[in-house]
Amino acid sequence: MGKALIVGCGGVAGVAIHKCCQNSEVFEEICIASRTKSKCDALKAQLEGGKTKVTTAQVDADNVEEMVALIEAFKPDVVLNLALPYQDLTIMEACLATGVHYVDTANYEPPDTAKFEYKWQWAYRERFEKAGITALLGSGFDPGVTGVFTAYALKHHFDEIHYIDILDCNGGDHGYPFATNFNPEINIREVTSKGRYWEEGRWVETQPMEIKREYDFEAVGQKDMYLLYHEELESLVQNVPGLKRIRFFMTFGQSYLTHLKCLENVGMTSIEPIEFEGKQIIPLQFLKAVLPDPASLGPRTKGKTNIGCIFQGVKDGKPKTYYLYNICDHEECYKEVGSQAISYTTGVPAMIGAMLVMQGLWQKPGVYNVEEFDPDPFMEALNKWGLPWQESFAPELVD
Ligand SMILES: NC(=O)c1ccc[n+]([C@@H]2O[C@H](COP(=O)([O-])OP(=O)(O)OC[C@H]3O[C@@H](n4cnc5c(N)ncnc54)[C@H](OP(=O)(O)O)[C@@H]3O)[C@@H](O)[C@H]2O)c1
After folding, report:
1. What is the mean pLDDT of the chain?
2. 115 three-state secondary structure
3. pLDDT of residue 111
4. CA gap 10, 84 in Å, rounded
5. Is the shortest distance between the CB of 141 and ligand 1 below 6 Å?
6. Residue 162 Cα to ligand 1 middle (Å)
7. How far apart are CA 351 and CA 21, in angstroms?
8. Is the CB of 191 under 6 A from ligand 1?
9. How far is the CA of 222 from the centre of ligand 1 (A)?
């Protein structure tokens, strides 16, 4: 069917690339391009012998000209951005310059401010419309599948959704006292920020980890979870008519929180540059360098993730509650693609988003979030490509 250029070769990209190669009817040819080419070559070597033709390239995705030259040389149908959120805008610029569709999994965030927002990428709407190309934003799990779940619930189960609680539970244990499951810098910036949820037309801000609840997750058990601000809240508030409240909760173990507090207290999570032995360094980037690489957690992680959305609203004039979720097993993921479930649950929807754009099923000139497309082909693909979903009509609710 076509060609995809995949930018980045970390934990998430590794899974998405394995999945593209399993789906060779759609992904006839892929180019893996990243800052460190040796990682791309090592992955290519693992994938040798399959039907998908794999090439590799070195690219600095912060540099628009380099990206344009690579796109012009490879001529992909879609660019799948699995580098870091800092590269979103330069890659979007390169897609505009070359007329190629764009897909990512995380919204732009400026390197010097820990503040992610869609405004920078939504500002490209008119330019993508005029260029006749699609930008699909946030095609991971959360954001990503959580938005697709919402669109599916709205299409098939509700006339109006009033309350959404997104619950992200990682019941996995990697055996380290402290490690993050995806890029440590991005992860720590997210969890040390203030919490925020949306209720009755306005945002309510909380201190980091101020709101705690307990929840009994299927296949995982009872866990503490904390209210965080998460990027899909921003787009779902705009795209779900009649919504009264939306919140996001993530589980954290006590050891993770204690380590994080200590690192914060000593200044290791700061993004303010400091002088060290005559050199400017950013403490959080130094911390990233000493923490385990998330890609190395795969062989050590046991247990399951359970991520989903609880919806409350009305159907045919009657109140209704509906829970859609996916359970994913760290060890099964490792057996299949050599990585843990956090990368797996992001990499699979990234491949699916790129596939639907390439197939034309999710093409619409402009810049869109996942919930703005028909959820049905995505939901079908989740079942087919390793993230089957489950539903419940009488779930435990979060107070
Ligand atoms: N939506 C979701 O559910 C979800 C969940 C988890 C993660 N994510 C997102 O997924 C993305 C990837 O996460 P990850 O855990 O795979 O991160 P990662 O393991 O750190 O991988 C990032 C990759 O991007 C490459 N890269 C960084 N800067 C680059 C540049 N200027 N030019 C070219 N390549 C560059 C890195 O190259 P080097 O190898 O040289 O460092 C690395 O290969 C992030 O944006 C993250 O926020 C989304």
Report:
1. 95
2. coil
3. 84
4. 10
5. yes
6. 34
7. 10
8. no
9. 31
Cβ neighbors of 279 (< 8 A, separation 6 or more) are: none
Sheet strands (E) in 160-317? 160-170, 195-199, 202-206, 212-217, 221-227, 245-251, 274-276, 279-281, 304-315
Domains of the chain: 145-339 (3.30.360.10)
Residue 128 confidence (pLDDT): 98
- Alpha-carbon separation of residue 94 from 67, 87, 198 (angstroms): 6, 11, 34
Distance CA 374, CA 364 (A): 12
Distance 107 CA to ligand 1 centre (A): 12
Helix (H) or strand (E) holding 179: none
Q: How far is CA 213 from the centre of its chain?
A: 23
pLDDT of residue 59: 98
Q: Which residue has the tokens 């754009």?
A: 357
Helix extents (H) in the chain: 11-22, 37-47, 64-74, 88-98, 119-122, 125-131, 145-156, 184-191, 231-239, 254-265, 283-290, 330-337, 341-358, 376-384
Pairwise CA distance, residues 58 & 39, whole Å? 10
Residue 6 Cα, ligand 1 centroid: separation in angstroms? Answer: 11
Q: Quick check: CB of 36 below 6 Å from ligand 1?
A: yes
365: left (phi over 0), alpha (psi -120 to 50) or beta: beta
